[in-house]
UniProtKB/TrEMBL annotation:
Protein's name according to its UniProt entry: Glycoside hydrolase family 3 protein
Pfam families given in the database record: Fn3-like, Glyco_hydro_3_C
Keyword Acetylation tagged: no
SUPFAM superfamilies (alphabetical): (Trans)glycosidases, Beta-D-glucan exohydrolase, C-terminal domain
Superkingdom to which the source organism belongs: Bacteria
Keywords noted in UniProt: Hydrolase, Signal
Keyword Nucleotidyltransferase: no
InterPro entries the UniProt entry points to: Cellulose_deg_GH3, Fn3-like, GH, Glyco_hydro_3_C, Glyco_hydro_3_C_sf, Glyco_hydro_3_N_sf, Ig-like_fold
MF-aspect GO terms: hydrolase activity
Length: 677
């Protein structure tokens, strides 16, 4: 099998923020605005008249914005002019997030960004989005990648620690620009399985059962951002998750709001107030209402208050949560100007963000015979594509030529792939670069590989289930993610050797094959089934060198542990590394599958050894205790493993723990910033 067994390490750019899941008594003190902001929210809610309180629990279609493209899906939170609370505008969260400037691509190149494993870059992405959103008059933005309900693979990958960290850093960038991040996904952003298996979205599930799964990612996002709000109803109705308030407000001590997308909180039928009471019971604080006008917090809520079914104190608590989130972002004091949304904002200044995401997020999956990087001295490279990717191929070919390579572009006819249907130049090429966006290219790739030359395949899609029947017959494979024109220059730099590959997979690449009975496709499910996937979570190669790990030691300090180890670069070129630390519970403890506990990003100079440490929260090995609102950690021997991916562990250490109860409150301390050494 030519599927590479050489596990080199690639890595990230500048320093990384490692997100410490420690615990303090009150989360509010650490959020922007602090405990003062939370108290201010309670005071402001108490000063509102009942009709004002009942109005601000909804965001309705924005009025007065004309027919501009920006206004098309805008909703407005009404504010209270009497109290100096401004109107705040936001997108309709029923759909995948789109840029305010009307760009043709989704808001962020999510999987490519997650593949960088670089929270600093994620924060930069959030800051860039904040500038754009504010200029276009929007004060609230949904950040996907994490959700209340479990999913095998969302936009930011399949691991709650990685996804929560990256989504949280995007949120931190948004908050710094006075934009409120709302953490939650919608079904259209879920990476569906190739075999058509769909998750169950009809059965109610207690939030306590999700505490160590999907809710962990949401908690990490809120902790990392130090503020925000939570979206429900994006994957299934809000009432699907029961007992949410007991975790979010009582156990986590999160002071902010739970927001429902349009229709997510239910709909009123025949003047029945039951949906309204159910939405309140589901901990929904604010409801978005679309142009159809279906809502549960409008006339029905006012009726429920009049009849006494809903107490005024409950409405006031909802308003307090809403205001607390807005005070976290500072948007009530720094609202985006209405004129920007009405008249059209000026174009944003150029930013290399998307190019940098590709430069750090492209993953080298295989590199037999070290064909990549292309050596100009070995002659021309033929690039082969089907017509749909011709514009992308032309940009990439131009960039490769600027990098010093002799590149010829050949376009196969639509559907061509069998011998005799490809352009004649293919049979003469010693090196062929195939830019491929889907399984329709598989026959073409297999045919080219059988011709005997060196073949490099660049995957230009975000499909974790992409089939690779040709894997054993090609030399190199690069996961370059869904194509954007900004990728041409950085991808050319990687393929030509001007820059080293540094991405690591944020998802398991399955090849479309799953063990029998496997409901999910994430790496923990594969581990429980004792099946090694095609390419594992965390995997990525380097073209410039390799690293070694040694001297792994783990010590406990209260509710945390610290793993320290050495990393050595024996080669003569610098290499970026992403050492990954995984934790595994004893065999006799439920849920013993290995999970990511933390990582570091570092550039290791030639011939140097660096000593690193990674903090680990012991709640990652705990079971949620609903009665105590904490994490119960069983006594026993826990294994911490250091490696290059979720299946390639090279160092192990055992940590003996007594029985512990780790508090459930969210971390209110700033995450330490680790500068790259």
């Amino acid at each position: 099998m030519r599927h590479s067994a050489t596990w080199y390490v690639a890595a990230l750019c500048t320093g990384i923020v490692f997100l410490r899941l420690s615990v303090l008594p009150a989360y509010a003190a650490g959020a922007p605005g602090g405990s003062t902001g939370t108290a201010h929210a309670a005071d402001m809610a108490a000063r509102m008249q009942p009709d004002e309180q009942q109005t601000v629990v909804q965001a309705r279609p924005a009025a007065g914005l004309g027919t501009t493209a920006e206004a098309g899906d805008l909703l407005a939170w009404p504010g209270v002019a009497r109290l100096g609370l401004p109107v705040l505008r936001m997108p309709d969260f029923a759909h995948a997030a789109q840029p305010a400037d009307g760009a043709p691509h989704p808001l962020l190149p999510w999987l490519a960004l997650a593949a960088t494993w670089d929270p600093d870059l994620a924060r930069r992405a959030g800051s860039a989005r904040a500038r754009s959103e504010w200029l276009h008059g929007r004060a609230v933005l949904r950040v996907g990648g994490v959700d209340l309900l479990p999913s095998g693979r969302l936009q930011a990958g399949e691991d709650q620690v990685l996804a929560g960290s990256m989504a949280g850093m995007i949120g931190a960038g948004l908050l710094a620009g006075h934009i409120l991040p709302v953490f939650g996904s919608v079904a259209t952003e879920e990476q569906s399985r190739a075999d058509g298996t769909l998750p169950d979205r009809t059965t109610q599930v207690p939030a306590a059962q999700l505490a160590s799964q999907s809710l962990l990612g949401v908690a990490m996002a809120l902790e990392t951002a130090h503020g925000g709000a939570i979206l429900c109803g994006g994957m299934a109705p809000c009432q699907t998750v029961t007992g949410l308030g007991a975790i979010v407000h009582d156990a986590w001590h999160f002071p902010g709001m739970v927001m429902a997308r349009p229709g997510g909180a239910g709909e009123i039928r025949n003047a029945d107030i039951a949906p309204t009471l159910a939405a309140v019971a589901a901990s929904v604080d604010m409801e978005q209402v679309d142009t159809d006008g279906h809502d549960v917090f409008g006339a029905a809520l006012r009726q429920a208050v009049r009849e006494g079914s809903l107490k005024p104190a409950q409405v006031q608590a909802m308003v307090t949560h809403i205001l607390a989130s807005f005070y976290m972002s500072g948007s009530l004091d720094h609202p985006p100007p209405f004129s920007s949304a009405h008249n059209g904002a000026p174009p944003a200044s150029p930013d290399t963000l998307v190019a940098d995401v590709e430069a750090q997020g492209a993953v080298l999956l295989q590199n037999e015979n070290r064909v990549v990087p292309f050596d100009p001295a070995l002659g021309p490279v033929l690039m082969l594509v089907h017509p749909a990717l011709r514009p992308a191929a032309e940009k990439l070919a131009d960039a490769l030529r600027h990098a010093g390579l002799n590149v010829a572009l050949s376009v196969a006819t639509e559907g061509a792939g069998a011998p005799g249907t490809l352009p004649p130049a293919v049979s003469q090429a010693a090196r062929t670069l195939v830019l491929s966006a889907g399984n329709d290219d598989n026959q073409m790739i297999s045919t080219v590989a059988e011709m005997g030359g060196h073949v490099v395949v660049v995957l230009a899609s975000d499909d974790p289930d992409r089939q690779m029947p040709w894997l054993d017959t090609v030399d190199s494979v690069v996961q370059a993610w869904a194509w954007r024109d900004e990728y041409a220059q950085p991808l050319a730099a990687l393929l030509s050797g001007q820059q080293d590959f540094s991405g690591h997979l944020p998802v398991t690449l399955t090849g479309g094959f799953y063990p029998p009975g496997l409901a999910d496709a994430d790496y923990r499910a594969f581990a429980r089934a004792h099946v090694v996937p095609l390419f594992p979570f965390g995997y990525g190669l380097s073209t410039r060198g390799h690293l070694t790990f040694s001297d792994l030691h783990v010590v406990r300090d209260g509710n945390h542990a610290t793993a320290s180890f050495s990393i050595t670069n024996p080669d003569d070129t610098p290499v970026r590394a992403v050492p990954q630390l995984y934790v595994e519970m004893p065999d006799d403890v439920p849920g013993a599958a290995r999970r990511l506990a933390g990582w570091r990003s570092i550039m290791v100079a030639p011939g140097h050894t660096v000593r690193l440490s990674v903090p680990v929260s012991l709640r990652l090995v705990g079971q949620w205790n609903p009665a105590g609102g904490n994490w119960s950690v069983a006594a026993g021997d826990y294994t911490l493993s250091l490696g290059f991916s979720s299946v390639m562990m090279v160092r192990h250490a055992t940590l003996h723990l007594p029985a512990l109860h780790v508090p459930g409150a969210l971390d209110s301390t700033a995450a330490p910033v680790m500068a790259s050494e």
